[in-house]
Amino acid sequence: xxxxxxxxxxxxxxxxxxxxxxxxxxxxxxxxxxxxxxxxxxxxxxxxxxxxxxxxxxxxxxxxxxxxxxxxxxxxxxxxxxxxxxxxxxxxxxxxxxxxxxxxxxxxxxxxxxxxxxxxxxxxxxxxxxxxxxxxxxxxxxxxxxxxxxxxxxxxxxxxxxxxxxxxxxxxxxxxxxxxxxxxxxxxxxxxxxxxxxxxxxxxxxxxxxxxxxxxxxxxxxxxxxxxxxxxxxxxxxxxxxxxxxxxxxxxxxxxxxxxxxxxxxxxxxxxxxxxxxxxxxxxxxxxxxxxxxxxxxxxxxxxxxxxxxxxxxxxxxxxxxxxxxxxxxxxxxxxxxxxxxxxxxxxxxxxxxxxxxxxxxxxxxxxxxxxxxxxxxxxxxxxxxxxxxxxxxxxxxxxxxxxxxxxxxxxxxxxxxxxxxxxxxxxxxxxxxxxxxxxxxxxxxxxxxxxxxxxxxxxxxxxxxxxxxxxxxxxxxxxxxxxxxxxxxxxxxxxxxxxxxxxxxxxxxxxxxxxxxxxxxxxxxxxxxxxxxxxxxxxxxxxxxxxxxxxxxxxxxxxxxxxxxxxxxxxxxxxxxxxxxxxxxxxxxxxxxxxxxxxxxxxxxxxxxxxxxxxxxxxxxxxxxxxxxxxxxxxxxxxxxxxxxxxxxxxxxxxxxxxxxxxxxxxxxxxxxxxxxxxxxxxxxxxxxxxxxxxxxxxxxxxxxxxxxxxxxxxxxxxxxxxxxxxxxxxxxxxxxxxxxxxxxxxxxxxxxxxxxxxxxxxxxxxxxxxxxxxxxxxxxxxxxxxxxxxxxxxxxxxxxxxxxxxxxxxxxxxxxxxxxxxxxxxxxxxxxxxxxxxxxxxxxxxxxxxxx
Length: 854
Hints:
By secondary structure, the chain is an alpha/beta fold. Helix 23 (622-625) links the parallel strand 19 (613-617) and strand 20. InterPro entries: Agluc_phsphrylas, Glyco_trans_35, Glycogen/Maltodextrin_Phosph, Glycogen_phosphorylase_DUF3417, Pyridoxal_P_attach_site.
């Protein structure tokens, strides 16, 4: 019989074991192996059954077992040592505390999803997993982060596969009382509630759940409370669900409600209100408008508040294609802005932030990425290649500037090694290398042999095989009304066969079925009698993406062929728990997106952390780190005539690599059965590549290159009651009004012979009209470099020209002079331009104003 309601009853833990409850309440257990070992000791079978979730686990442990442990002084001492270690971890100074007073006191990190543990399913894919790893690394480094997201009652979705291969979605409701969460409460015990005005004179209310991610508090807003009308209770029903208005409501709540939740949290805890706000994608863009509204309440104008808010805001884009950006109907956004949602803000000031460049206002959607970029003075992509893609994709916001001058940098993503490294590899590092830090261990040391690493890899492969068989057995029972799975399901995969993994979200550009371009050739690779290969594949298509579902169906139907079904499997319901066995269990991790549409692709990083070699298109992070030591590059057929030909050529290259290079290395063994050349690559991957891929490296970059400069700049702009912000806003308005009068009227050159040579000097004299501006408000520059047939300047360099100081017959122009030394041979080109100059501008392109010589 189906229950009408479900809730969680928590166990009564004996007071002698209070340390267990304290350890369970902090999500550090999700990556701290000593704590996990402690819980496993309580009941190994129950620990695995709970999905290694201490909250669920403590609710299921037999009371007699708890009483037994409560009388075990050795166990009590062990638990209290781990509790004391946790207390020290969250309170003692770490890396960040050595940086000095100029570092931000608090950084707010907003994301629509967070992938921290399978026990808290608030994520759909890479964006959320990256956010979770960001929090964990920030905690390890001592970065004073406060994170904000939404609590989705049904998470993303649970995936099942029908007998015909079609994806099916289920949305099981979560009980927050059974999760590692607590309600944020005031001193009198009443819950904190944030409220947003919405159209129709109504209000949207949200309570605030909080989770402890090590040292980092995570606030999650939840609208499923009695204070809301029935429809508004559903705003946080599921991640990326619903139509346009539903999604807009979620993003308004995340941005505006999130800032209000932080304000309440800051007041209750005494922690500093953040100096820096970091938007992980554009979903949280409305946080900037909420902060502007607060500044207006303090007496600033919209323009002045914008300058103050921008100075302390960082925006990270993860999107390599315009189709991946949230865009809302402009009239719909206006209806919310007109409802009293943001006191003091005139919709006429706010709506232009979401305008798409080159599109008339009446035809433009409200673009969340455009708003994010306009509200943030610092922005970045998530790999070097993605930074280049982003500068081209968003370049229209800075018209007249070349792509390499667009003010979007890059911080390559990283992964949290303690979360993703298998315990078996950790144990090997502890036993042989004397360290629990697998990321920085000396894997080239003779203290650990090839045979030992190979043995651990085989054990991790066996672990994956057993998990895959268990999952497929369960899926068979679900598909066939509880029927017992046939014998072949229990023979799926082989722990001694070369195992290739492929798991990710399933949009079309990731090309789930590229491997099926030549089904017969692929089948021959799988069933090669001497050098067989097996594939383990997983991934979810968005519920509204029928094309992605068709790709899954095609793959599943291929894998159902009787002669192949033990060599290729699709595992349903890809999540963190599956991933933590999948990455270590694979020998090779494959990634074959359409270049350059993979922003980063961190799954290959996690596999590398476990000694897997990468087989990938030169895209995302792999474009920076690819080397023979770490795997293989699938050649990109960019020059192909059409998409079909490109897929065919790249699939053929993929088959060649597997058949002729990868399988040979894996199956060529020494007399002890160890593939020595293969193991040399595994060692180099662990020793040299892993340290570059860590989330600690990523978070340090964010701190040093973005957070600290943003905090310092915000402090300058906000000094003396925001006097610099007021002055900057007035200056920006003045420059924008005067800019039509700026012109490079005439450029004279000299100093070169008829045939210029390297070392010659080009002398320039530019006549520039400044209109209502002064010489101190502009920079006049020569831009020069190689210039080829497309009339563009490549690898451009910039040198400033200086006022000549001599009089001119034309009082309307000023003369600027300078010299360029020709230090490179080849085609050469130059131009002269004028850009605004102000000490509080971070980039000369910041205002998107430039006047160049014709």
